[in-house]
Amino acid sequence: QVQLVESGGGLVQPGGSLRLSCASSGIPFNLYTMGWYRQAPGKQRELVATITSGRNTNYEESVKGRFTISRDNAKNTVYLQMNSLTSEDTAVYYCKGESPWAKYIYWGQGTQVTVSS
Known about the structure:
By secondary structure, the chain is mostly beta strands. Strand 5 and strand 6 form a beta hairpin.
């Protein structure tokens, strides 16, 4: 059974930081491209960042320089370090795992991030 379990969300003040984690099981994690997506109320889900099995990274323009995606293959976990948070970052953040050639795609249940004073 495949599971992607996000954690680390919460309420943070503008300018603050959070680190999200996504622990996976049931997949060959080291072979998967892992990603973080987010969905704000009334908006479509959007890409935040991805990291390939070779550790190549890609970021949505608005988070470049503020967010860092990383992975620990020994722990089957992908992280998203989020700094300098603004209210525009408020959303539910989802973890995604994609197998080579996108044959299999799995999503976590999401974790809420709220940036507010």
